[in-house]
Structure formats: C-alpha cells, structure tokens
Design goal:
Aminoglycoside 3'-phosphotransferase, Chain: A, domain 2; Phosphorylase Kinase, domain 1; 5-stranded antiparallel β-sheet; 295 residues; 2 domains; 9 helices
Length: 295
C-alpha cells in the first residue's frame, strides 16, 4: 500500500468509492505523492503529515485563480484538507498524463500563454490571503506600492526567517538592509503593474500534457511585477529561447529588465537559503553587494 491507511479511507469517503491501484509519484522534496484510481478514474494526490495549517488549501486557492484566468492550463482541484484526526493534510488533483519537457511549439505556446496570464491585473500587489512558497510562509498583504511590497513582504520577510534560522550573519544583514534602502532607486512604482503570477516558476513547476500543452503546477500565486516570474524561469533554466521570444512578442518587456533580473532572483535565492542552507549564502551576498555598490 502506498497511501497511509487513514488517508486512503479519507479519499474513499470524499470520492465516494474505494481507492485502488496506488502508485508512487516522484519529483517533490516537500510532500509525498501518488497516483491512484477511483472507479477507473485516475487522480493525483500529495500529502504531508507535518504540513503547516492552510498550506494545501492555499495551493488549491492559487490553482483555482490561475484556472479562472484561462490563460494557461492547470490541474483541476478535486479535494483538499488540512491535517486532522490523524489524517495528513492532502491535495487531490486531476491526473495529467505528460512529461517534464516539450518541443519548440510547446514552448512557444507556453511563452504566449504566460504573457496572457500576466495581462490579468489587480488594483494592488499581493492577494486576499497569504500562502506558501515551498514550505515557507509567503505573506501577501495587498499593497499599492510594488517597492513597499517587495521590500517588506518578499526580501524583508525572508530576512526575518533567515535571522531566526541563524543564516543572516552581520555582513549579509548589512548588505541586504542597504539594498532595501536603495530599492526606490532601482525600481519604478509607476511602471510596475500588479500582474497575476505563478509565483514559483522554475522548470520543475510545469509539465507537458499529451496534447503538448504546458501545464502549471505547484504555484505560489499573487499579483506582482511580471518580471518576478521571468526572473525565476532564468534562475535554473529549462525554458529555452522560443519561450522567451514568444513571450516578448506577445507582451514586450519594459526596458531595464536585464538590470533588474538578479534583484528579483534574490527573493528565490533567499527562499533556498532558508529551506536548504548556506550553500545559497554566497549568491545572496553577491547579488546584494552588486546592487549596493551601484550608485
């Protein structure tokens, strides 16, 4: 048996018939995951005995927001719940047969779809509820100013976590504090619209379905500057030139993105520092020093 007995019973109750044909699904480093069937219909489930309260409901909420936008395919949410009465927290999604990579046409269409997603905007940066990036909390208090939002709820918040975990030595804290002070010189609130973002768009957070269509998974959704998603796609690779060409042709970038890219990647590297340790500390220091040194 793959699923914990109590989870299998819960899913049978929720879906109305017994769970069958359980198989492990690999690829995540936070949750356990499996494919299973109910009455011949396949589903995907991920679960975690120690999931923070609201982690799976927040992810389900984000998937539903992306789905309503209609720009990029996401898995349909079937069921979700926090841990309770010995049963782990879980999220059940439709099962999507697919792969982790696509051809030129897939990536071109993906670039167009992401650009269309980013055309969905809101009056403020943030979201009506907080969520998670990986297993770390991600605050989303709606804020009119992108500079304030990025300072306080992205870099500043991760600094607080790093300090609590002993990953913010004096020099690093000084560099990051000085960087936050410089944000008004580096960013322009007047041109940075609150676009609908996936929020954690690295190469492991999309798959390609049987029709060759990109499918977004594992979001950390909020409204923010669209360059955040693009910067993350470039941090670890996995997207390719046609993806970017199609994106830029559909929704041209503002000037200066190349200079801002590392500034936005800093958030994700801080997240990795807090999740995985000092291996990422040197990158944090290097990026902060680069921007602090620019006058």
């Amino acid at each position: 048996m793959v699923l914990p007995t109590i989870l299998s019973a819960e899913l049978s109750r929720v879906l109305g018939k017994p769970v069958q044909n359980e198989q492990w699904v690999h690829g995540g480093d936070i949750n356990q995951a499996a494919r299973f069937e109910v009455d011949g219909m396949p589903y995907f489930v991920k679960w975690n005995d120690s999931a923070p309260p609201s982690m799976f409901p927040a992810e389900a909420f984000g998937l539903q927001i992306l789905s309503r936008a209609g720009a990029v395919r996401v898995p349909q949410v079937i069921a979700q719940a926090d841990a309770r009465d010995g049963c782990p927290g879980y999220l059940v999604l439709e099962w999507i047969e697919g792969s982790r990579s696509g051809g030129i046409q897939t990536m071109e269409q993906f670039g167009i779809a992401l650009a269309e997603l980013h055309r969905h905007t809101a009056p403020t940066h943030g979201l009506e509820q907080d969520n998670f990036i990986g297993r770390l909390p991600q605050p989303n208090q709606p804020t009119a100013s992108w500079i304030e939002f990025y300072r306080d709820q992205r870099i500043g918040y991760q600094m607080t976590i790093a300090r609590q975990r002993g990953r913010l030595p004096a020099r690093r804290e000084s560099l990051l504090t000085r960087l936050l002070e410089r944000l008004p010189d580096l960013l322009d609130d007047n041109t940075m619209l609150p676009s609908l973002l996936h929020g954690d768009l690295w190469g492991g957070n999309y798959l390609v379905d049987e029709q060759g269509q990109a499918v977004l998974i594992d979001p950390a959704v909020y409204y923010g500057h669209r360059e955040m998603d693009l910067a993350m796609t470039e941090l670890f690779g996995g997207f390719g030139g046609r993806f970017y060409e199609a994106y830029h042709a559909t929704y041209p970038m503002d000037s200066g993105y190349a200079e801002r890219r590392a500034l936005y990647q800093l958030y994700y590297i801080l997240v990795h520092l807090n999740l995985f340790g000092e291996h990422y500390g040197g990158q944090v220091d290097s990026i902060a020093a680069h921007y602090v040194g620019r006058q």
